[in-house]
Each structure stands twice: as structure tokens, then as C-alpha cells.
Amino acid sequence: MSNQVKIFDTTLRDGEQALPASLTAKEKLQIALALERLGVDIIEAGFPVSSPGDFQSVQSIAQNVKTATVAGLARALPQDIDACGEALKVAERFRIHTFIATSDIHVDAKLRKSHDEVVEMAVKAVKHARRYTDDVEFSCEDAGRTHIDYLCRMVEAAIRAGATTVNIPDTVGYTTPTEFGGIIQQLFNRVPNIDNAVISVHCHNDLGLAVANSLAAVEQGARQVECTINGIGERAGNCSLEEIAMILQTRQHMLGLQTRIRSQEIHRTSKLVSQLCNMPVQANKAIVGANAFSHSSGIHQDGVLKAQNTYEIMTPESVGINKNNLNLTSRSGRHVIKHRLHELGYQEHDFDLEAVYDAFLKLADKKGQVFDYDLEALLFFDQQKHQQ
Ligand code: KIV
Ligand code: ZN
User: Fold this and answer.
1) For a disulfide at 270, which of 9, 139, 176, 288, Cβ 3.0-4.6 Å?
2) 64 assigned binding-site residue
């Protein structure tokens, strides 16, 4: 089995559909080009049948993206697949992604069809999509709550009909990592033609487990992860691209897996998506939050100044951030104050460390965070005292 995990980005489809206001076609193209630069394998550009605007923006992304595969979403309906095929045909490489729900609750209450009819629709949809391209993905919506026997039957039928990727979504973010990994393991054990397709996963974050579930799935053989920048998406969002990519990179020796993500592009891509989507990133968000490479406690600050990896498992540079940040607060020690003064260009003989540190602690107790300009003011007062 290959050790390459494909990254399928759905920021512009699942991510965008969760925004209060749609992105413009120009903004979507800007994000698509950033995703291409980031090295994602597949960009899901939109849902062409949903509106003329979405059709045009998928078409424009298909025209402009050169290295990544561009995908469009289609329900298992001929008109959706035709719209996808039309919008995408200008691309260097494209994929039609068709889906139908497979859980009892969706089949009975939403589709109101028999289980046999749903398999038949899936097979027809995949065959229809194959008329446009030999890169067809089929998704079993709500696979996480689908009876395993039916899921196996559906996956086998979709592959036989010509699906080259089969996606197993945890649409409502309901499963736990052991459970979701177990579903993937059962598919590999029970579906006879499983090796003829790439198994993909698409996890939502309703219980905060989207990344953990995606990781459990790749550990069981899934080789495509569907994810979004900053984890944006329906409700609590989707698996976060930056998190799964950095897990696979940081723990590569243990997992033995790799992606094509250029991790140094992560920070700027995250900023672009956050700004264009008007979705601020929480400060303590892994990898891209403002505090992800900030150290506050004196013990930690002292540690990273002695050896960065005491408290950093990846470097800020590896995700495109210039350097870590040591917050100057009353918890900071002398070592970090001295280090910061050196960074600001002051030599040892320019200051009396004990006096400056004493003044720093008094100020920090009053105002919380001490900034570089505060420190320089303290230094200035200290120097004036010595001149008097
Ligand atoms: O969450 C989901 O099931 C989806 C499918 C359309 C793949 O977004
Ligand atoms: Zn989804």
C-alpha cells in the first residue's frame, strides 16, 4: 500500500457553504491558487449545479489551476453530473465527485427510497460521471451511521461501476476514533474489490473529533483525507487541513506516511482564508492560532531559549511563521528579558539587568503584558538614573 496520503481540500465547497455570505468568484479563485501553491492534490471548487455563480466560479478555477486536480460536487442525479462535467471540462485534470446518503435515517426519511433503489442510483451516477472522466469519486453520505453490511455493499457496487475514489464521510461528526478506524478496517477486510479504489475520509467536527477520526482512518489504510483550511465547514466544521498535514509531517517516523503539502505555505493560506471568509481563527487553535508558537511561562521561555524543541514539537518556520513569540509577563524570568534586550540591539553594558528586571516585574504586575516599547522605556529610565 502506498505511503502517500492525498489531501483533498474542500474549503471552497464544504467550507464555503457554511459561511453567512458567499465568497465572490474572484475571492474563490484567489483561495484556489493559494491551495495549489500549498500543494493540495485535489481542490473541490464548488457545486456547479447549485447556482449559475457557482458554475462560473468552478469553471474559472478549472481554467486557472494547473497542477492540482479540480473537483466539483454532484448529487447522484444526471443534471448535477452534467453540470459538473460541463464546468470542469476546461481543466488540465478534473474529478467528478458524486454522492448519495447511505444511513437508514437518510435513506428512509430524506431520500424515501428503498436500499436497493439507492444502490441503483449510486451505480447509475458513477457510470454517468465516467462518461466525462476516468477520475470519479463516490461518497456514501452519513457513512459513519450506516450499517456496515450496507456500507460494504455500496462501496463494492460503486467501485464495480467505475469509482476510482470512494469516500467514507462521518457527515455528522458522530463517531469516535476507534469506531471510525474500525469502519475503515472492516471495509478493507470485507470489500473484495477495495484495492481498485482509493479510500477517502471526510470527517466533520461536531464532537471535536474530525482530525482524530481522519488520523484513525489513515492508520487503517485510507489514503485520501478531505479537509479544509482552518477547519471551516458545516456546523462545527471539517477536519482541519493544517492539523492533519502537520500530524503526518511531525510524526512521519512513527506513521510512515507523507503528503505533498508545502507546510511553509500554511500560515499565509490560513490568514487568506480567515480574512476572505471573515472567520477569525481562535488564538489557541493548533498550528495556525496566534498562540500556537507563543510561550508565556518563565520556565517554558527559559527552556526554548536554551533548546527550541524543549517546548516546540515543530518549528514556527516549518508552517511559515518567522519566529516564535515569548510573551513578556510577570511570569517571565531574567533570561528572557536579557534575550529580548539583546534582540532589540542593546549590549550587556547598556543596562543593569537586576534593576531593569525589578522595574519590569512591577510594571508587569500592573499591566499584564509588557511590550518592547515598555521595555525600552524602562531601560531609558534606568540609564537616566545612572547619569544623574
Ligand atoms: O459531509 C458530507 O457527507 C459531505 C458529502 C457531500 C461528501 O460533505
Ligand atoms: Zn461534509
Assistant:
1) 288
2) no
Q: What are 333-354's pLDDT values in tens digits?
A: 999 999 999 999 999 999 999 9
Q: pLDDT tens digits for 324-333?
A: 999 999 999 9
Note the pLDDT of residue 387: 77
Q: How far does the centroid of ligand 2 lie from the alpha carbon of residue 346, in Å? A: 53
C-alpha distance from residue 67 to each of 41, 113, 184, 253 (Å): 8, 40, 29, 28
Mutation test of ligand 1: which of 174, 199, 200, 204 has the most ligand atoms closer than 8 Å to its C-beta?
Answer: 204
Q: Which atom of ligand 1 is nearest to the CA of 142?
A: 3
Tell me, using a 6 A CB cutoff, whether residue 162 lines ligand 1: no
ipTM above 0.90, yes or no: yes
**Strand, helix or coil for residue 364:** helix
How many CB atoms within 10 Å of residue 354?
9
By C-alpha distance, which of 360, 351, 357, 344 is closest to 385? Answer: 351
Ligand 1 atom 7: residue of nearest CA: 139
Residue 99 in contact with ligand 1 by CB distance below 6 A: yes
